Amino acid sequence: MRVAKSEPKQQLAQQPHTVRKQLQKIPVWGWILGVLTVLGGLGACNASLSPSTTGAIATATTVVTPKDPDTDRITLDTVIRDEPPSLDPALATDSASIFFIRQMFVGLTGFNQDANVIPSLATNWAVSDNGLEWTFYLRDDINWVYRNPDTGKFTSLGAVTAHDVVYGVTRTLDPRTASDYAYVTYVIEGAAELNTANPQADNFEELLAGLGVSAPDDKTVVFRLKKPAAYFPSIAGMWVTFPQPRAAIEQWGDAWTEAGLIVTNGPYTLRQWDHNASIIIEKNPLWINANDVQIELFGGPIIQEASTAMAMYENNQIDMMADPGLSPPLLDIERIQADAHLSRELYIAPRLCTYYYGFINTKPPFDNPLIRKAFAAAIDRATLIKDVIKGGQRPAHSFAPPGIFGNVANDMDIGDYLIETNYADQVTQARQWLAEAGHSEGEGLAVVLRHNTSEAHAQIAQAVQTMWQEAFPRAQVTIEAQEWAKYLSTLNPDSPDKDKPNIYRLGWCADYPDANNWLNDVFNSKSGSNYARYNNPEFDALVEEAAFEADPAKRRELYRQAEDIFINQDAAIAPIFYYSYNRLYKPWLTKVVISPVIGDPIAEWRIDREAKNAARGE
Amino acid sequence: MTAYIIRRLLWSIPVLLLLTFAIFALMRAIPGGPFDFVGDKSLPKAVVQNLERRHHLDWPLGWQFSSYVLGDDITGVICNGLSFLPGCDAVQATYQLGVSQGLIRGDLGMALKLRGRTVNDLVKESFPISFQLGIISVAVAVLIGIPAGVLAALKQNTWLDYGSSFVAVLGLSIPNLVLGPLLIWIFPLTLGWFEVATWGAKPPFTLGLFPTTMGWKFWTHAILPAATLGTGFSAAIARLTRASLLQVIREDYIRTARAKGLKERTVVVVHALRNSLIPVITVLGPLLAAVVTGTFVVEQIFGIPGMGKHFVTSIGNRDYPIITGVSLIFAVLLVLANLVVDVVYAWLDPRISYK
Question: Is A174 domain-assigned?
């Protein structure tokens, strides 16, 4: 909870409740903004979100000096929802940080708006026949740049080379860097050994040298893997594997990401970072596609209160309510939908996250799959979303959400018992399963449902409790709330089952858009995130095989089978909804490219400056 | 008097040290650590170990406290000299990292969750802003509260008294999180006056505390949050002043003063008001300490980058050095404020004296 936090990824996974929580604090806003509706008149609205294609045309200039004062520059104004804990690609964990990192740095691969892997710094790549050796071929026209804070001049510091990638990966995995996300690269040979080593150990230098990443020349990076990983190109697009500017890091240490020191290689660079107050990034005029980048300045103040940001949006002070800022407050959604202007500025985009209720699979009575299935089925997801959550989410019937490679969200054979057209059928089926398990109408069941303390989670839990009580009148369902850090430490697979509830709530968001990051990383019996303590060797074998499989069609099928076992046979968890995310964009944003992977490419956006200035009375 | 002040200050040192240790130990006693999770995800043990090693969290608690107060180098020297002490092997392994210079050298430590930032940095950039907002709000509170209280007391049981009581009760009972958005709606959104959010000054600050310029631009940011914070306090001060003044005004020495034929204004301002301020001052001291160290709600609503949020978020984040640091600053200010209050007592009421 950032709260910010810091929000880390939790910012993502807890999005609905953070927003709601703040609203609970300020009920008056609903009323105030209701009055505002009457005032109306917020400019002409004619937004269109057009898809874009990336045309990679290389035209590099040498040194460019900005000539105009900032008022003349094309600016996209937003708020930022929290102080980024770090703008270092090796260290970032939360979505606000990652958003900015993706504007300022590029990695070997990138993601398009369907979350598919696309070339970026690497133009193409190949894998050896045994699947263990991945070779990436780099372009040589992307440069490191430095912006002088006094003169505003950009200087090229030379091309980004394969050695910068090797340095970046090694630095991320060096235990002295202490990167939170280092573990997602453990599939690289020697990575886990290096990251878990004691830096004082005698063989530490050997471990550093033994890491399976090398640069045979400036334009080629070779990764040796511990085991085949068909999803590796996704990993190569994660910020922790980005090239990193060695000279700047060695010169400035942790401070290298400050404005005035930072060296970047993406379409934007950091212009100003007043900690806890504001961030501004500026277009990199030396970027390969600089001529195609219209927006020159992007950023704004750090505002954590959604209703305050909404007021700024309605006052035309900011152009958007979306990443890296805040979504419009949920309490305002009905007003926005009813408003002639605002409703046309509202967009609902999916987000690569799933909200679910997990069962502790080892703790009776939920060690019985029939009971798990019964409780998973007796949740009316559509009503829950319509009346309680109110965010227009899509009911979930599998774990990996739409947009993830290998998801089965459109395969209605998986988890069909969770989303029947007629909810009454679900209840009938659930009652039957409970009766088969020997607990007719819930007889003799005392169930504890626990969530981390938050108004939104509490409301969902109460609604689900009511649904269960109606379906199983003789079961006793108790709701408990726990503070976040304590909640997670109790749920940890290593903590004793007796301290755990029967059912817990969590969300999972993609680190990289591949089902491996879902089924294997979370619910493999060996995973540290397997809070459900789910253990099915057949499932483990399937997801491990899928990681090895090179043929995309076969991989998809393996993940389908895994989800089938996971949901249809074992009902290890009860998926509730796939996340979606409300956004507001002013009509003068004429082109907005949204990426389900965090970090919408601002470089591809377009803004109608005249319309914006006119609305602001400038 | 000077001796009294020095004695009080010296006494506050062990108090603050004890308080530091209490916060230090209590925070670590709360289940869950700073690196248990990233968002909804738990971290592998090895990664947690790397992070803990970086911040000495793998040391025994006593040595962590020693590092916090004395610094890494002194702690290392102690352990090198007395290596038989329990836990010294851990200290010897990593004290060279130089995480902490120690409180004795004014170092409040490294933030755990904000990479590369020290608590000193956080305080340096956020405390002055909370301080500015706090001082302005208290000024608003005093300037409105005391005259309103005096007026209400002097015109007891008239419409002025009832009117000011009504306004005061209203001011007390509207919480900041209602008043703030209401003011935003009325002024910036409806009338187009002032700014919706953010603060009008940023580092570097004059003398480390004050904005470099305080032009109209500064006030467009400051007026609404200061009014939000100040009105609640002014209501409390008004009620307190009224009650206290009503009591004082019935004292014998006031009757004497009137009998001597003094002008009513002299009686009230010189004789009555001065003595009736004692309860107000008693409240004002700690209030000032609390307000200048930041107020979470108002800072959130108006998007002000003050220190208030660190008090709240650092607990959820288990960011031990931040919560210890900001609490310590609050404690120091509280000790000082109480001392000032005690000194002011002696000035307001000659019957009070300190030896």
Answer: yes
Cα(A166)–Cα(B126) distance, rounded to whole angstroms? 38
The residue segments making up the domain with residue A399 are 350-580
Give the range of the structural domain holding residue B258, as residue numbers without chain letter. Answer: 121-348
The residues with which A159 forms a beta bridge, in sequence order, are: A143
Distance of CA A11 to the CA centre of its chain: 9
> Do A371 and A510 lie in a common domain?
yes
pLDDT(A32) > 80: no
Rounded (10°) angle between helices A537-548 and A552-563: 160
Residues from chain B that touch A181, judged by Cβ atoms under 8 A, are 38
Find the residue in B nearest to A310 (Cα).
Answer: B196
Half-sphere exposure of B140 (CA within 13 A, CB side): 20
Show the tokens assigned to B262.
């003094």
CATH number of the domain within which A468 lies: 3.10.105.10
Asked if A178 and B47 come within 8 Å (Cβ–Cβ), the reply is yes
**Greatest C-alpha distance within chain A:** 78
Measured between CA atoms, how close is B181 to chain A, in angstroms?
Answer: 7
Domain count, chain A: 2
At A401-460, the pLDDT tens digits run: 999 999 999 999 999 999 999 999 999 999 999 999 999 999 999 999 999 988 889 999
Q: For residue A579, give the amino acid letter.
A: Y
What ipTM was predicted for this assembly? Answer: 0.86
SS3 content of chain B, % helix, strand, coil (to 5): 70, 0, 25
Q: Do A93 and B38 touch (CB under 8 A)?
A: yes
**Structural domain contains residue A141:** yes
Q: What percent of chain B has pLDDT over 70?
A: 99
Q: Which of B201, B313, B197 is nearest to A80 (CA)?
A: B197
Q: What pLDDT sits at residue B157?
A: 87
- Top mean-pLDDT range of A165-179, A320-334, B91-105: A165-179
Contacts with A29 from chain B: Cβ below 8 Å: 181
pLDDT in tens, A250-275: 999 999 999 999 999 999 999 999 99
Which residue does chain B place closest to A199, by CA atoms? B50
CA nearest to A608, candidates A616, A599, A597: A616
Angle CA(A72)–CA(A74)–CA(A75) in degrees, nearest 5?
Answer: 110
- How far lies A203's CA from each of A196, A209, B296, in Å? 12, 10, 49
Task: Determine contact: A401 vs chain B, CB below 8 A.
Answer: no
CA distance A187 to A225: 6
DSSP B206-226: BTTTB-S--SHHHHHHHHHHH
- Nearest-angstrom CA–CA distance, A44 and A50: 18
* pLDDT tens-digit readout, A42-53: 333 333 333 333
Residue with tokens 């995480």: B99
Q: Is B110 exposed, middle or buried (0-12, 13-18, 19+ CB in 10 A)?
A: buried
Q: Per-residue confidence at A1, pLDDT binned at 50, 70, 90?
A: very low
In a domain? residue A116 = yes
Residue of A85, A176, A274 lying closest to B114 (CB–CB): A85
**Spacing of C-alpha A515 from chain mean position:** 14
pTM of the entire predicted model: 0.85
Number of Cβ within a 10 Å radius of residue A201: 11
Name chain A contacts of B182, Cβ cutoff 8 Å. Answer: 28, 32
Residues B101 and B125 in one domain: no
pLDDT of residue A31: 37
Q: Identify how many contiguous H helices and E strands chain A contains and give both numbers.
A: 20, 22
A529 → closest Cβ in B41, B46, B114: B41
